[in-house]
What we know:
Elements: H1 21-28, H2 33-39, H3 44-51, H4 53-62, E1 66-72, E2 81-88, E3 100-106, E4 108-114, E5 126-128, E6 131-136, E7 139-144, E8 149-154, E9 161-165, E10 170-176, H5 180-185, E11 191-198, E12 204-212, E13 216-217, E14 222-224, E15 227-233, E16 247-253, E17 258-264, E18 277-281, E19 284-290, E20 298-309, E21 314-327, E22 336-341, E23 347-351, E24 362-367, E25 372-379, H6 385-390, E26 399-405
Parallel strand pairs: 3-25
Antiparallel strand pairs: 1-2, 1-26, 2-4, 5-6, 6-7, 7-8, 9-10, 10-11, 11-12, 13-15, 14-15, 15-16, 16-17, 18-19, 19-20, 20-21, 22-23, 23-24, 24-25
Amino acid sequence: MYTRSPAKSRPGKKLHVLLPYDMEVETLTRLPGKSLMKFLCVSKIWYSLIRSQRFVASYYAAKPSRFIAAFTNSVFGKPERLFILSGEEEEEASSSSSSSSSSSLVANLDMTIPSVTLRHGSFKYSSVHGFLACSEGLTFIICNPSTRQVITFHCKANGTCLGYDPVDDQFKALTLLTSRYDLIHNPSLMCMHEVITLGRGGRVVSRTQVTSPPYRRMTVGLCINGFIYYGASVPNQTEALPPPPPPVFVCFDVRNERILSFITTPKDVLVWKGFTSLIEYKGKLAVVVPICLGGASSFDRFNLWILEDVTKHEWSGQSFQLPSSLPFTLGMGERMISQGTNKAGEIIFSPSTLPDRAHPFYVFFFNPDTKSTRRVRIHGVADTEEFWSRYGLTGICCVSFSPQHNDSIAFL
């Protein structure tokens, strides 16, 4: 049996224990990102460890994903504020065999960003490798809920989207500079883009320009495995009375900074244009298209289009029937959209605006395999009078719900 020597057991004597590096990493990766930010002040050794690229990568790989709910105090409210909440996702999807079931999750406030409003129609922000990004006019905002770092920089046009290059561990922002009005007057005009490369400290490392054949952008962008995708239309230049421009998906290579291809697309994929929901489905680009017959304000069926082969431009499509209808008003009313899936492969539908004052906030999980739907209440979002008063909410408040956000303690 091991016994400490008398010299080591004297009162006031400090006992220093050196843990192996792997054990330190294993211990620290179990902690929340906010706690690690406080531990940066403990010692120079811990500061160097937590900020090292090796530990940042280990932490990102080890932490389970969370859901993010971001909302603004009002579409037209002053002062403008963006609130970001998050919560732990379910370990496993419900195994209930019924066509529908209910459960709940809890959201807690992570951070508040002043002078930012999610405008109606641009309600979706992007979650890219631990960072969130959204546009406020010509200002592009990137933040990390774990570190509370906020970066803003000026763009030359609206509609900037964030991409991540996993090979070089590099973030880049893409902006289409050529407007649709320029193309109306000159359909053969080459499109000009600006690529902004971001470095440490949130500084802009470089701004380069990239050209491509003409097109008109139609949707927000989505970054998957180092490529940014968004829907577009290509003008027809050969006939006096051209038919409607064919839909495509623009594929931008983040690492090599070039428009890789225009992916031909079935016309039904982009039927809703700006209201089209782009998601990542089992590692592939997918599009959720609600079927609203006769201009109905709700849908109980939707089509799921999956880009099966990027090189061959091959898509697969399947229709699904929902157990009950979901709203889809194109105006300022209530609308359910899809913003992604969870690890179980369930497609998640969420509102684009907060519900009426002090009403529960629900998201819906649809399982394509079992054809069942789960209703999940998000506690801590819009469901009490105290919530509305605390955040100064009035009128129509846009909200963006994102599943499977991976925590990162990286700093730009």
